[in-house]
């Protein structure tokens, strides 16, 4: 009887050393057979009852040796398989291959230019004010001293919301002026970037949506000279330390007096001739002293306070600075176009 058990141990030892564990499946089968919860070695331990007393010690050693042999075989095979898999993986990496290009996103040229403008004004104490794009007639036009019969109110120019003459897509960021002035008392020093809409035919030079940055400064004794100095600072930060500006008289319903500001671009090449129409000067923005009617409309005392305002388009400046020749490129989001601004902030 006990001889059978000794024989069984011998056979299993033989089996352990003969078994080929070529793959993970065979390894798992081996583990279940020899080391799993219902393994084959366990019941053999129980057989000690049937072993003659003088052989019990020998029996114990043999079964333990069997168990250890199974464990040792399993561990060494498992390690071998893991290192073989690792080797195979590193062998499949071809270090001589050219790297694949990782495409990272880029800022949109409109954002690049807008952020630059905001940065320039933030450095001299302006803070950003943002407002709604769907406005009411009062904030966009009436408060801004734009009379009922003004052509800008025409359906041809303004997008009104369906079945409404009250609600519209703002036509300029000047609507932020009335929003801020009706909710804050001076001193006010804000810069308002944002998108505006006008019912214009889309072409290489104009679009029905575009971006503006508005500036508004209201305090006691603010003068035209303050505005001129601020705008000269802006032009030089934006276009270079030697940039010259000129202010030409103009008209806006919400400023009096009003002006348009040009920067001197030069006539250094054919392109400069074309974009400045042979004058060397480029129009950048509209500006002026806030009309006292506007202050009154917004419940700010015009006898105590005065201020200046300016508004500029972003698209044209982005096109100048980045040599973009068609405004539509800025709204199509063609990745081949946008990719070129990778790394520009
Ligand atoms: N809102 C004017 C425009 O859209 C620009 C402007 C703003 C002019 C502020 C003067 C003062 O053309």
Task: List its traits.
345 residues; binds phenylalanine; 2 domains; alpha+beta; 7-stranded mixed beta sheet; elongated
Summarize the structure.
By secondary structure, the protein is α+β, with helices and mostly antiparallel strands. The protein has helices at 2-18, 24-35, 42-46, 56-91, 109-122, 137-142, 174-183, 224-239, 270-275, 292-297, 315-322, 329-332, 335-338, and strands spanning 127-128, 134-136, 167-169, 188-197, 209-219, 245-252, 255-264, 281-290, 306-313. The chain folds into two domains: 2-91; 109-341, Bira Bifunctional Protein, Domain 2 (BirA Bifunctional Protein, domain 2, 2-Layer Sandwich).
Structural notes for this entry:
With 345 residues, the protein is an alpha+beta fold. It folds into two domains: 2-91; 109-341, Bira Bifunctional Protein, Domain 2 (BirA Bifunctional Protein, domain 2), CATH 3.30.930.10. 42% of the residues lie in helices and 19% in strands. The chain is built from 13 helices and nine strands. Strands 1-4-5-9-8-7-6 form a seven-stranded mixed sheet, with helices on both faces. The chain has a two-stranded antiparallel ribbon with strand order 2-3. Strand 6 (245-252) and strand 7 (255-264) form a beta hairpin. Helix 1 (2-18) runs parallel beside helix 4. The mean pLDDT is 93. Residues 172, 174, 214, 252, 255, 286-288, 309-311 line the site of phenylalanine.
